[in-house]
Amino acid sequence: MQGKVLIVTGALGALGKVVAETALARGARVAGIDHAPSQMSATPERIEIGGVDLSDPAQAKTAVEAAAKHFGRLDALINIAGGFAFETVGDGDIKTWQRMHALNVLTALNTSHAALPHLAASGAGRIVNIGAMGALQAGSGMGPYAASKAGVHRLTEALANEWKGKVTVNAVLPSIIDTKANRADMPKADFSKWVTPQELAEVILFLVSDAASGVTGALIPVSGRV
């Protein structure tokens, strides 16, 4: 990680914070982009760009260019920004499907589109997306979320083929991430079997590293303890 410049979207969320802090601890420089307001001033090692709607391509491009200008280059993009909804098709609202597509697919698409020229210039450019094991086979109520995350999987594969030899593009597919929000939503679950943010961060940062130069187009399940 030493000296690498990373963009982390959703950087103020439960997973984004852990990924950003772990990367910084290993010598990376990090630009955090989030819909929430920025919480800190810029330093040579870190910049937070808040108040950004990454489902808007113009806002995504502006944020990526600000990060590239601050650090002088970009080496990796980690697309964590996203959302979740549980809603059956029959009882649900079409707007939920549109919202999941915007939060999960368009955020990754727009940020990747803006970052790709910079990543290609890096010589070791990386994109890591967040898919979902739940998108491999959708259960009842998982339709809107699973469909959007399946879109992230296909986006990952398409970009990996289109930019092969220039930028590696992979996705991690977590099961249930052990966060405060998920524990509150599923209080009777066995939390010990969930994947922790730190476990997921380790896989993500491996895919960003030089050691993963030969890995592209991979959809990697991260299921925690079973």
UniProtKB/TrEMBL annotation:
Stored InterPro entries: NAD(P)-bd_dom_sf, Sc_DH/Rdtase_CS, SDR_fam
Taxonomy, superkingdom: Bacteria
Short name of one Pfam family: adh_short
SUPFAM superfamilies: NAD(P)-binding Rossmann-fold domains (SSF51735)
PANTHER family in UniProt: BLL7886 PROTEIN (PTHR42760:SF135), SHORT-CHAIN DEHYDROGENASES/REDUCTASES FAMILY MEMBER (PTHR42760)
Protein family per UniProt: Belongs to the short-chain dehydrogenases/reductases (SDR) family.
Protein name (record): SDR family oxidoreductase
Taxonomic source organism: Bradyrhizobium barranii
Lineage: Bacteria, Pseudomonadati, Pseudomonadota, Alphaproteobacteria, Hyphomicrobiales
